[in-house]
Protein 1
Amino acid sequence: MIRKTALSIGLLAASVALIPASCARDADLLDPARFPSDGAVFKDAFAAQVGYAAFQDSKLDALSVDPTGGPDGSAALKISVPAPGDPTGGFAGGALVAGMARDLAGYDALTFWARASRSATLDMVGLGNDNTGGSRFGASRSGVQLSSTWRKYVVPIPLSDRLALERGLFQFADAGEGGVGYEVWFDDIQYERVGTIAFPRPVIPRQTLTEEVGRTVQIQGTSVVFDVGGSDQTVTASPAYFTFMSSDSNIARVGTDGRVSIVGAGTATITAKLGSATASGAITFSTTAPPTTAPPVPTRPASEVLSLFSDAYPNATVDTWSTSWDQADVADVQVAGNAVKRYSNFGYAAIEFSSQTANASATSHIHLDLWVRDAGNFRIKLVDFGANGAYGGGDDSESEVTLTPATSPALKAGAWTSIDLPLSAFPLLQSRSHLAQIIIAGSSPITYLDNVYFYLASPAAAAPTPSVPAAQVISLFSNAYPNVAVDTWSASWDNADVADVQLSGNATKRYTNLVFAGIEFTSHPVDASTMTRFHMDIWTPYPTAAPAALRVKLVDFGANGSFGGGDDVEHELAFTAASSPPLATGSWVGIDVPLSAFTGLTTRGHLAQLIISGDPRVVFVDNVYFYRTAPTAPTVAAPVPTVPAGNVISLFSNSYPNVAVDTWSAGWDAADLADVQIAGNDAKKYSNLMFAGIEFTSAPVNAAAMTHFHLDIWTPDPVDAPAAFRVKLVDFGADGAYGGGNDVEHELAFTATSSPALASGSWISLDIPLAAFTGLVTREHLAQLLFVADPSGPKTVYMDNVFFYRAGQLTAPLAPAPTPTLPAANVISLYSNAYANVPVDTWSAGWDAADVEDVQISGNAVKKYTNLVFAGIEFTSAPINAAAMPHFHLDIWTPDASAPPAAFRVKLVDFGANGGYGGGDDVEHELAFTATTTPALATGSWISLDIPLSAFTGLTTRAHLAQMLFVADGSGPKTVFVDNIYLHR
Amino acid sequence: MKAKPQRRALLALTAAAVACLAACASPSDEGAHDWQLVWQDEFEGPAGQLPAATKWRFDIGTDWGNAQLEYDTGRPENASLDGAGNLAITARREAWLGRSYTSARITTRGLFEQAEGRYEARIKMPRGKGIWPAFWLLGANQTTTGWPACGEIDITEFRGQNPSTVLGTVHGPGYSGTGGIGRQFDLAQDRFDTGFHTFALEWTEASLRWYVDDKLYQVIRPGDLPAAWVFDHPFYIILNVAVGGGCVGAPDASTPLPQAMLADYVRVYQSAGRP
């Protein structure tokens, strides 16, 4: 069949009028009543002023007058209907046009006689087309059966009063059938009042059209069924014959000749009458406003996008956005200044780019922005032409995704929907390196499309920053740690592509086309033997529903540190949606597993390879490291303090004598306390710490001479902000008691960012100048210490070495020598606050070279020697019988250098049996103490010299001990404080 | 109430005579008759009212020897006044007692029977393929002598698919069924289903004369028949609309139903000269 659409575009291009049209008057100016009502068109000859005009593209010479071809042997019109493919025209068709318009209102039919050279179907015959393109009242029958004998045919006039001024008297069109042409004859073409034409039943389509405000729609498909002598006959009648009515003229208005203007959103139904006869059918316009905003501007980097249509990207070549074989009309329109594809009459549309197929293998998703007014469903089919890049050949594949309001993403009506689909949602697509078609289909007759592109999805944010302390980590790849050297992130032997990308400024590895990726650090194998866990953050845009898996393999090259040699071990773990952690799509998954889970990895001193494989073809990787978990308790003791004991007032330390502390967890505090041992060293463990109160009110500490407060703490708890650990010192003032208006206190907070900084899992020495406790304006009667973790600080804190100290060189002891503990009965004391002392004649004999004075150290009497060369202490008046006391004790303290050759000597003299100086029975012995002796000489701390008298080997008698000498000649200490001089047993 | 054209018999006769003279050889006995109205039904009454039981009875049943497809009922849905001065006999497409169509057939049997006279009705025919309305007479002795011996005069029969044509026919012994004697009348440039037309039979002992709109189109005399002239005893009147049947064929999807035959009136005259 020929395309009939061309027929109504009857241009007079083919002016083969057999009789020249001679009417030169303007028909519009004439009184219609004066137009001839003659019904004759062709009756053995053309009626006056009637001529033939062939239709455009028709066989122009198809019509001729056959002088003897008529039914009665007279002339008839003869039409040569061309065979298909006739070079002179594909069909015969044209109009018999009156030079002067006729008034045909008095007739009810066009009639004619016709026959054909064979049985044939006359495609179209009718009236009301003058071949100018301006005819309004076309009416025709189609598919009229002709035989080889003459018969009379009737074309009922749909509504004759419309034909009061008509030039288009007769029209026909016909194409050959069955591959051949034939002849058709017409004669006695005329208008008649037949009288037997009755019961007009006008018909307009019964349809619902989806349209948009602002558009104009031409009603089509109108016809009338007449009863012609008892048989129904359908006449196609142009809409101009009809009178149309709109149910809502605020939505749809019908203008001239059935042109509907959509003026508002909603639903309006167009009905019609032909004269007084109501037409069956109704055209319902369901209208909406078109989109007024553009879809969101794409933000993905152009480098990750393969665009087919977008204002935001350069676009690949697309052959067509609507192929000839699809069911859609496409138009390029502007929406809010953005170029958009508008599909109308949309059933399905094929977007073809087969001349340059698209290689989307390096992408993970397809994006399109969609605006539909009917969200029933929308389908997207991707078609790949396979390796041969051409349709067919057995390697084509295709896959389709259906979207509805219930899918994700959900289809929305009347709004832009951004569709992002992973390409893996098209599981039947065997390849995507030769994509050639996108076929879209859907329920929305009007569909807008924009931003059609493939892209490689990326995480929106970098992987979470690791929080494991760097000291516990061996990192292969992380911005959070120093990384060990990695030879390659994609070995030559693997099947993957890797790229370094930045996510929010964070370096990330991006694997594409991942089948398996080999990461090698053979040059610098990792000794993870002290590590306990393996961590890797991954992100994939791919579906991770079962059975998809991502596998991680660790390879240890064994003791020989190189591949092979029989000592290599490896183990692979698979992660799925059901594993722990579960694999997920589109979010960072922190794979964090104990190395013990790699059961085959029996050694891990020479880890050399990490191999990633699995189903996701695109994987982002970050923070690849081994680490050891933070212990819940310290495994080593806090560092041994180095401050000289003499500089220290210790509350709690194994390194110092400790002052008395009433309680380490007062009844009013909120903390649990346990005394624990860490590697043999005493420590305090606070748990459930809110605040802990340590009280030493019974014996307040005078820290006036101290410069610092020290404590070592260890917590397993995270110390990220806002976690804080606070230390408060309280001084009870001069009254030495709580209250009284003179109490002062100050609290300091320590955090991960303070100095010193809190840290988790390691001993932290808080070494704080007391001056930092600015509110602590007095510190002579320190009585309380508080540790506060409320509200977010560490809840478990180990503590050791809690002491005050004075930094730098001392000139005098800050505290008295340790109080002797021996029972008085076991002692003969020369000088001590702890005992009753025997009489001493002098502490500096006239003959010696030293000065002595009595000083008080914290209320304790001490002898202070200065300018010491040698000091003579005499108790000759009452010599001491040391027979029952085999030990000599002396506490000394010097601010002077004690490094060798400095020596401090002690000499004891026995006057012998005569009990007096001389007489030949005196004996003596001198012992020297240096930094290397035992006990050792030291600077700035009390040294207890507790010496068996037997060490004084020359002191062969000791029943009449009468002198003692301290000797510092040469390089010995010039200033020495002395206390607790006694003999004991 | 619409004004009903009251037929003027004399004028009509004159016109008919003229037509007849033009159409056929006019025998001497076919002069003017002084037709006296003896029976009529003008079908005045409210819509939905059954035809007057004093004048009409329903033939209820189906087939009637013609393979008619409808079941004829006695319901107003099938035969009742239309309130506009017409009787409507309405054929419907509906399931009824094993049939797919219903309609009606009313007669004056036992209520009004007469030999000879002028029988006239003004009718608008229903339309559509397979619709077969008729205005006709049947010998009142049918139950005793049987058909076709009783005689049948089809004043008019109409086939929906031939809207411009009616048929006038007689059936009797030896000329019944397809052998009936008759003639068709073709309406020029018009059709019977778009307006009212009058259909009349003038029956004397000498002839049967058929008229459409007072135009005589057929005369049958005893000598025209191949067998006995049985039109010598009382007949009664039948109005019916058949659906399908041998004469017309079955309706099809194009047949618009329901579809009514409208009868403006039925009038019967007797010749004034007849005792």
Protein 2
Amino acid sequence: MDVLRFALRKLLAGVPLILGVTLLSFTLMVHFGPDRTFELLGKNPTTEQIAELRHQLGYDQPFLLRYGQYLRELLTLDFGHSDATGEKVASLLARSIPVSLALVLPGFVLGNLLGVALALLAASCRGRWPDRLIMAAAVFGMSISFLVVIFVFQIWFCTSHGLDLFPVRGWGMADVPDYLRHVTVPTLAVVFVALGYNTRFYRAVIVEEMERDHVRTARAFGSPPLRLFCRDILKNCAIPIITRITFTIPAIVIGGALLLETSFGIPGAGKVTYEAIISGDQPVLKAVVGLTAMLFVAALLVADILYRVVDPRVSLE
Amino acid sequence: MAGTALLSVRNLTVEFDGRAGRLRAVDAISFDVLAEETLALVGESGCGKTVTGLSLLRLVPQPPGHIVAGEVLLDGEDLLALPERALRRLRGRDIAMIFQEPMTALNPVFSIGAQLGTVLRRHQGLSRRAARARALELLEQVGIPEPARRIDEYPHQLSGGQRQRVMIAMALSCGPRLLVADEPTTALDVTTQAQVLAEIGRLQRELRMAMILVTHDLGIVAESCDRAAVMYCGRIVEMRTTAALFSTPHHPYTVGLLEAIPRIREERLADLPVIPGRVPDLAQLPAGCHFAARCPRATDLCREVVPAPLPTADGGLVACHHPYP
């Protein structure tokens, strides 16, 4: 019950945030964004034609009214049709977001799990060779451009210069083998790149916690190392870990992974967003911007509730 | 207080990696703790008393700390030579510790019942249910009001005194033979201090434990310890029964410490004697007696030769070339 009320309050507190973000981005789009008038009218239009079209497009309506319409679109998730393809924006996103999720999620989950595991290992051997090795590898992984990683992995895994096990490009989720065939190499690339950052971050968090008095107490009462690290310390590190994970999710859902999607020719949300930006496809952009704001508020809410689950000191008040 | 030595510390030497190289925090100290007695390790901050306490169970963080030499014999078994796994079985079961900071010494994200239960299940092999019942008993025993409610609370919901009582409950949970209490009351307010000390004393007698009480408070030493070892710069300078130490202190440092205790009847507090000078930097310890530079009785001998601990008439030890009679 308390949790429910807490969630409701957090949701309400998210409303001004959504309004602020959408108002700002909508203002920017209206004043500096694409204006389709001249694109549609071609050469030498008359003043009447311009006025007529602007009326049709709704450009002549007062700003607040247009913003109100945008909010209604957000609430109903009905953003009209794409300027570029004429497809319904909702169905465009419904088609591409699952692809992006299926593409990025395995790498994201693995990257974080492995990151925590390696960080625990490094921290528990602090200053000794396993720690040094892991940290050196982390810096190495972080230092290589994502693009280079993708190309090298494509050459290694997908061409006759290497193992030649997977297709270089393309996407399919018809069945599990099909999915695995297409998702493996992108996942490896994501893990390779994310692992360094994650490990370094999580190790720093764990090492800080290791120096707390309660860890000494646990050792003084005979806590074995595995339990010490995986329970006593890790639960205390949960808040920064939760924060990092929950706040990456909205960016993955909507932003997708542009580099991955472009390099592997995958029709995900990243590509949709990128193309909308390039072609000035306002309905799609409005949808993407608005959904991102809403997802962030949702992530905020989830993070706040999870904080409470792992840390009794966090108050629901 | 005749008895056999439960714990014998021989030649314990602990060093730390500092910016200026290795610092010797504990310098070849030796002492015994007899069964059921209370030994105070007393001295100023930085004299090595806490490090000594932590070293007994190899709890000094390594690195930067290194136990470079010595033996800690519990019933003849050297804890410093024990494999980690065997030592873990001993920690909290045969030797338990209480720490200075009750605010941070307990894990903030587990309920006190869970923390007590973990220790009980680990060392006593109790079931979850039995451990909980025993934890309730223990909380009751250390004087926590409403233990049935408190057991599911988290450390931040308790007062400092209650948290320290929980620590005590945890320390006593497996009936250890030796309790190492590191400044157990320093972080508490004065009334709570007295209660917690009385509680520790009562439980110590009930459970017939020996105790090492690490403190800088001579009042606590006088009240609750059988013997006291005065430490200065990593060495024990004088070790006597409490009564003897307070009535006829031999070492000039002990004399200085005792003179520096403010007495309520003294008219002018401005005249409170102090030990001149400062504790030397561990990185630049003088040769010979570490206290020589501040000592009114120091001679050239003191500045050159480390005084060996010599037995006193009453069975104590004093490490001084020119002790007070």
